[in-house]
């Protein structure tokens, strides 16, 4: 059994530009909870897929939702001009994982699911979750089979299939629909 790796920080948005003349940042929100932005006290900005490259801490002076788009407008202490704000374009805004927004029962963060072992209710070991596809109908877990086949399975994250997600045990138990594993 394996356990997914817990990251140190969670990405909550990407800076897409400057807003106004006082250095506000336009942030593409990457959170399902827009209300979280108004409660921010400090954030970390960094580049790269995990946002770790040259991560810098900033105190949040203010935040509000941008009504026209799925964006937030953020003011950071020390960023006072559109030129300063624009230099931050493309950076990822993060918070420590300890400040993760609480989820409803049965909801999980991506980092909690990726890396879990997947097995069927009949005891067949399928492999590990390597990615999550976010589709309009439902999420789909990409499961890479253990060697020697290295086959890939697409497992719909629906109640008819997912019978148990056990974070402590490091596994997901599924009841495959007919033809799902062919």
Enter the CATH topology name of the largest domain.
Elongation Factor Tu (Ef-tu), domain 3
Largest sheet: 6 strands, antiparallel, barrel
Number of β-strand runs: 12
Percent helix: under 10%
Tally of individual domains: 2
Which term fits the overall shape?
A: elongated
| Mean pLDDT value | 89
Termini separation: 24 Å
Give me the strand/helix succession. Answer: EEEEEHEHEEEEEE
Q: Would you identify the CATH H-level superfamily of the largest domain? A: RimM
- Look at the structure and give the CATH class of the largest domain: Mainly Beta
Task: Point out poorly predicted stretches.
Answer: none
Query: What is the structural class?
Result: mainly beta
Explain this structure.
By secondary structure, the protein is mostly beta strands. The chain has 2 domains: 9-98, Elongation Factor Tu (Ef-tu), domain 3 (Beta Barrel), CATH 2.40.30.60; 110-174, Roll (SH3 type barrels). The protein has 2 helices and 12 strands. It has helices at residues 82-86, 110-113, and strands at 9-19, 24-29, 42-47, 53-66, 71-76, 92-96, 117-120, 125-134, 139-145, 152-156, 162-166, 171-174. A 6-stranded antiparallel beta barrel has the order 1-2-5-4-3-6. The chain has a 6-stranded mixed β-sheet with strand order 10-9-8-7-12-11, with no helix packed on it. The longest helix has 5 residues, at 82-86.
């Amino acid at each position: 059994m394996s356990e997914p790796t817990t990251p140190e920080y969670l990405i909550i948005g990407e800076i897409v530009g400057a807003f106004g003349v006082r250095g506000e940042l336009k942030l593409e929100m990457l959170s399902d909870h827009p209300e979280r932005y108004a409660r921010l006290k400090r954030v970390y900005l960094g580049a790269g897929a995990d946002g770790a490259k040259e991560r810098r801490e900033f105190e949040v002076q203010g935040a509000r939702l941008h009504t026209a788009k799925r964006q937030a407008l953020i003011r950071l202490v020390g960023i006072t001009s559109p030129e300063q704000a624009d230099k931050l374009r493309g950076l990822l805004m993060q918070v420590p994982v300890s400040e993760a927004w609480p989820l409803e029962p049965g909801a999980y963060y991506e980092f909690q699911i990726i890396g879990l072992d997947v097995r069927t209710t009949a005891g067949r070991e399928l492999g590990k979750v390597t990615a999550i596809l976010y589709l309009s109908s439902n999420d789909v877990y990409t499961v890479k089979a253990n060697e020697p086949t290295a086959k890939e399975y697409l497992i719909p994250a629906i109640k008819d299939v997912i019978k148990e997600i056990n974070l402590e045990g490091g596994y997901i138990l599924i009841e495959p629909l007919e033809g799902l594993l062919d």
